[in-house]
Write a structure and sequence with these properties.
With 446 residues, the chain is an alpha/beta fold. It is built from 18 helices and ten strands. The structure holds 5'-O-[(R)-(carboxyoxy)(hydroxy)phosphoryl]adenosine and zinc ion.
Length: 446
C-alpha cells in the first residue's frame, strides 16, 4: 500500500483543499498547480440566502448552523468529484477572517482538524485577499487560459460585506486607497430592495427591477436621490472613501408614509442603482487620477465581489478603464460571489512566498511529531475583523503557523509552567499574622 507521504510527493505539485465559510455561503474547492498555472479541480458553492431571507437578513447563528450541517458532506463531495482522497492534499486552507465569528469557527475548526489528522500545513487565509486575487484566478482558469491583469492593478471590491478601492501591487502586497465609512454597497442594495418591497430583497433583484424603471421619473415624482460622496473630493484627506448609508436613509425618508405604485417602486430601484453606480464610478475615477498624479498609475482596472455581477456597473467600469487607457478585468460570476476557489488561490500565493527552507521544515515526510503540528496549526485565531493592509507582512505569521518547532515547544513549556503556578495549593485558612517569606515557602510545598 502506498504511504500517505508517497501519495503527496508523487508530484511536487501543490494541491490545496480550501474552505470558505465567512458569511452565508458554504464553499469548498480543490486547486492544484502554481499561481502561474492553476487548475481548479473541483468547486462547490452552497448559498444559504433562502434560509436567512425570512429573517430579513443574515442571522449569524442560523448561517453557522447551516455551515455545520453542510460543510463535511461538501468536503467529501469535492474530494470525490476531483478523484482525490485526503491523502492527495498537500495543504488545507480556510478563511480565518474577516467575517462572522461563528461561521469562521466552523470552517477553520474543520480545516485545522483535517490538517492535523493528515499532518499537512494549514494556511490561514484572509477573505479580502481571496477577492483581491480573484480576477487573476478567473483569467488563468478560463479555457483556454487568458492573460491575467498586470500588476499593479486598481481593484474595486464591492460585496455585501465590503466596499474597498485596493491597489494590488503583487500577491501578498496591497494598499487600501479608499474604503466605505459605513455600509457596504451590496448591503445598501439589499436594504433598499427591502424598502422597495422587492420579494427577495437582493441586489440581483434590484438590478432586474431597475431595468423596468426610470430614475428621472422617480426624481420628478418622489425625490432626487443623492449621489454618495459626490463632494468628498473637497475634503482632501479621504477623498477616495466610499459611503452608502446616506443613500439608504434618503430612500427611507423619501418613501416613508407613502404608498408607492408598482411602477414607482421600479423607478425607485433604478434611482438607487444609478446613484450607487455613479458614486462607485466617480470614486474609482478619483482614485485613478490620484494615483496617476502621484506617478503610481496602475496597469489595469479590475472589479470583484458579489456586486460586480451588476451589468450596469460592469459596463460603466469598462468605459472608465477605456477613458484611462487601461485594460479592464472582471472575474466570472462564480468567482465574484464568496467562493473557496479564491481562498485556495490566495493560500497558494502565500505558500509560494514562504521560503523553501521553511517549507522543508514542514514537509509531510519530515519527522515533525503530530503534537507539534497541532499546536502550530491551532495557533492562528479566527479574526472577525482583519484589515488587509495591516497584514501586509502576515507572511511572518504564516511562517510561524507553518511552524518553528522550537517556538511551539517553548510556548507549550511556558503554558505548562504557568498552569503549575495557577494550581499551587492555596491555604484554606488565612494566616493570622502577616506571612513571612519562609512561611509562604512552606505553604507552597504542602
Ligand atoms: O461577495 P458576496 O457574494 O458576499 C459578500 O462578501 O457579502 O456579495 C453579495 C452581495 C449581496 O449584497 C448581493 O445583493 C450583491 O452582492 N449582488 C448584486 C448582484 N448580485 C449580487 N448586486 C447588484 N447587482 C447584482 N446583479
Ligand atoms: Zn466576500
Amino acid at each position: 500500500m502506498p504511504r500517505m507521504s508517497d501519495l503527496r510527493t508523487k508530484s511536487k505539485m501543490s494541491r490545496i483543499l480550501a474552505i470558505e465559510t465567512s458569511c452565508d455561503e458554504t464553499s469548498t474547492a480543490i486547486l492544484s498547480g502554481s499561481t502561474q498555472a492553476p487548475t481548479l479541480e473541483a468547486h462547490f458553492i452552497l448559498s444559504h440566502t433562502k434560509k436567512t431571507h425570512p429573517f430579513g437578513g443574515i442571522v449569524p447563528e442560523v448561517v453557522a448552523r447551516e455551515h455545520l450541517q453542510h460543510l463535511e458532506p461538501l468536503v467529501a463531495q469535492t474530494l470525490a468529484q476531483s478523484h482525490n482522497t485526503l491523502a492527495h492534499i498537500t495543504h488545507i486552507a480556510a478563511t480565518c477572517g474577516p467575517g462572522l465569528l461563528g461561521s469562521l469557527v466552523v470552517g477553520t475548526t474543520t480545516a485545522k482538524t483535517l490538517a492535523l489528522a493528515q499532518n499537512i500545513p494549514f494556511i490561514p487565509t484572509n477573505h479580502l485577499e481571496g477577492h483581491a486575487l480573484s480576477p487573476i484566478l478567473s483569467a488563468l482558469t478560463e479555457s483556454p487560459p487568458q492573460e491575467p491583469p498586470p500588476f499593479p492593478y486598481l481593484l474595486l471590491l464591492v460585496s455585501g460585506g465590503h466596499g474597498l478601492l485596493l491597489l494590488v501591487q503583487q500577491p501578498t502586497s496591497y494598499r487600501v486607497i479608499g474604503q466605505t465609512r459605513d455600509d457596504a454597497p451590496g448591503e445598501c442594495l439589499d436594504k433598499c430592495a427591502r424598502l422597495l418591497q422587492l420579494p427577495t430583497a437582493s441586489g440581483a433583484e434590484l438590478e432586474a427591477a431597475a431595468k423596468k424603471g426610470n430614475p428621472t421619473r422617480f426624481a420628478d415624482q418622489i425625490i432626487p436621490l443623492p449621489q454618495p460622496m459626490k463632494h468628498a473630493k473637497l475634503h482632501h484627506a479621504q477623498h477616495c472613501d466610499l459611503s452608502f448609508s446616506g443613500l439608504k436613509s434618503a430612500l427611507a425618508r423619501a418613501i416613508a408614509n407613502r404608498t408607492l405604485s408598482k411602477q414607482q417602486r421600479l423607478d425607485g430601484a433604478a434611482a438607487v442603482q444609478k446613484a450607487l453606480c455613479d458614486s462607485l464610478i466617480e470614486r474609482s475615477d478619483t482614485a485613478l487620477r490620484t494615483l496617476a498624479a502621484q506617478n503610481r498609475k496602475p496597469a489595469a482596472l479590475a472589479v470583484a465581489g458579489g456586486v460586480a455581477a451588476n451589468q450596469t456597473l460592469h459596463a460603466q467600469l469598462q468605459c472608465l478603464a477605456t477613458k484611462h487607457a487601461l485594460p479592464f478585468f472582471c472575474p466570472r460570476l462564480e468567482l465574484c460571489t464568496d467562493n473557496a476557489a479564491m481562498i485556495a488561490y490566495a493560500a497558494l500565493a502565500r505558500s509560494e512566498v514562504v521560503p523553501q527552507k521553511e517549507k522543508n521544515k514542514y514537509s509531510p515526510s519530515s519527522s515533525i511529531s503530530l503534537s507539534s503540528v497541532s499546536l502550530s496549526s491551532l495557533s492562528f485565531p479566527v479574526r472577525p475583523r482583519w484589515f488587509l493592509q495591516a497584514e501586509c507582512d502576515y507572511k511572518k505569521a504564516y511562517v510561524r503557523s507553518l511552524l518553528d518547532v522550537r517556538n511551539v515547544r517553548k510556548t507549550y513549556a511556558n503554558k505548562t509552567r504557568s498552569k503549575k503556578t495557577m494550581f499551587t495549593k492555596v491555604p484554606t485558612k488565612a494566616p493570622t499574622k502577616a506571612p513571612t517569606k519562609a512561611h509562604l515557602q512552606t505553604q507552597t510545598k504542602e
